[in-house]
Amino acid sequence: METVCAGKQWDVLLAERNGRIEGAMPYLIGKKYGLRFIVQPELTQFSGPWYNTDKKDLEFEMRVGDELAKQLSALGVNIYLQRFSPTITNWLPFYWHGYQQTTRYTYRFPSIADPDALFKKASRIRKRYMEDVMAVCEVDTKLTPEEFATFHENYYRRRGERDMTPAPLILRLCKTALEREQALLWGLRDKKHGSLQAAWFTPFDEHCAYSILLAIGPEAPNGAMTSLMWLAIKELSKHTQAFDFEGSMDHGTELFYRTFGTEQTPYFEVSKYKPAILGQILRLS
Fold it and tell me: What span, in angstroms and rounded, lies between the C-alpha atoms of 244 and 236?
């Protein structure tokens, strides 16, 4: 949280019992136009509650979830919007406290223990160019955060768009994750000239890896990003259990991720607006 919320105010709600932390809920809080809000930090696909248990215990979830929802409501913010991890399948305690829910979807490999088997399940379009790509490109496993941040910015500039992710945030996040040995920052370079053709930043913990940031060059061969992803997932299989493509609800992006042979995975977007009309205004804006 400190890495993605640097310079901003963040805190965490705790549900405790008999001196043991049973649940936690980190949040970013801010204020604009006189309205207090809690929203997702940048480059954070999931937040919401965390339960300190390894087993599925509905009674435990209800009790701890209710305590966290009660504390959250006591903050009295005008806008609350967080996307819960797919591992959270019960939002009922938040419903009891006046929150609403929208189901969204991401695409995942629940297990990457056998990446070769995953590759066989992918659609033909995800495989067709890989051999050609690797004939002219090679993987750079030591891509620097500085080169990646510049490459990422140039990628959006060529598209006539503004890079919504500030370079200082990219640098801070990449450096922190790499220092902790909890990320891959890989690139694909042209063998002849050494120019960067594609790049991908993928942080992970012991449970899952996440596709956070990627960029592709203007002269990249067809299938460059797909090839880089498959090679990186093979390496990630040594460090974590699952892989999340982090979305997407966008039609074109959804198709790209689905054709890897992934599983569509639902997750909850939980919200609350005070006054309620704020939600209608924001949906129309």
Answer: 12
145-158 and 167-179 helices cross at what angle (nearest 10)?
A: 140
Residues 234 and 277 in one domain: no
Residue 176 is predicted with a pLDDT of: 96
Return the bridge partners of 92, or none: none
Structure tokens at 236: 């990630």
pLDDT in tens, 55-96: 889 999 999 999 999 999 999 999 999 999 999 999 999 999
Q: Which helix (H) or strand (E) holds 199?
A: strand 196-203
Look at residue 247 and tell me if it is in a domain: no
Give the β-pairing of 35-39 and 79-83: parallel
Residues 16 and 123 in one domain: no
Give the domain extent around 79: 9-104+268-284
How do residues 92-120 score in pLDDT, each as one tens digit? 999 999 999 999 999 999 999 999 999 88
The CATH number of the domain holding residue 26 is 3.40.630.30
Which long-range CB contacts under 8 A does 155-162 form with residues at least 24 apart?
A: 155/215, 155/216, 155/217, 156/215, 158/218
